[in-house]
Amino acid sequence: MRNFLIHLGYGLVLGLLAAAGIMLAAGKPRSSPVMLLPTPAPTNLTIDITGAIVKPGVYQLPPNSHVLDAIQAAGGLRVDADVNTLNMAAELSDGQKIIVKTEGQLPVASDGIERSIPIEVNGLIDINTATAEQLDTLPGIGPTKASDIITYRQKNGAFDRIEDIQNVSGIGPATFEAIRNLISVSGGS
Questions:
Q1: Going along 6-140, which residue ranges are E strands?
Q2: 8-state DSSP, 159
Q3: Which of 27, 54, 79, 171 is most buried by a 10 A CB count?
Q4: Predicted TM-score (pTM) of this structure
Q5: Residue 35 and residue 98: Cα distance in Å, rounded?
Q6: What does the pLDDT read at residue 111?
């Protein structure tokens, strides 16, 4: 009987070791191949640039672009641009608005956003230096007409008289009458 118990003991020990080996083998994590996904290409930045530049508008620029890149995309600076207010090396962020001031414009803070306004004569908007955003505040002048006024200025030079704004396509006598007491020209009426 003693031999029987010894063999039974050895059998139990061997059985337990075999069961433990099977459990370890079955419980081993199996490695699967790692699939590398392609890194998505960085998306372009969308910026809005206005003011004293050749072609104001919204532009798509590559990531890590700077203010200088935005100005170049917009056709460069106009001759009346105040370059001292620009940091050409500043990195752009998506959705950023850049306002290139003209000489004589003062910054105004409103809701934490910097805007620019021309030096006003008696509170009037100078149609020779106003940005598209400022012209858009005039009655009957929306974004399209504001852009047309700036394009006209760029092609034909400064307005001599406030009445000359009627030379811009889409601005007739009715629109002029609505804005005549709100506008001025540099050194003029």
A1: 45-51, 57-61, 97-100, 106-110, 113-117, 125-126
A2: -
A3: 171
A4: 0.39
A5: 42
A6: 35
Predicted local confidence at residue 61, as pLDDT = 93
pLDDT in tens, 133-150: 888 888 888 899 999 999
**Six-digit token string for 81:** 């641009």
Beta carbons of 124 and 183 less than 8 angstroms apart: yes
Instruction: Note whether 55 and 74 are within 8 A (CB).
Output: yes
Residues 25, 27: Cα–Cα separation, whole Å: 6
Q: How confident is the model over 52-96, as pLDDT tens digits?
A: 889 999 999 999 999 899 999 999 998 888 887 778 888 888 888
Residue 110 predicted with pLDDT over 50? no
The owner of tokens 């003029």 is 188
Q: What are phi and psi of 7, to 5 degrees?
A: -65, -35
* Residue 48 CB contacts under 8 Å (≥ 6 apart), including other chains: 57, 58, 59, 96, 97, 98
* Two structure tokens written together for 156: 């034909």
Closest C-alpha to 175, from 92, 134, 183: 183
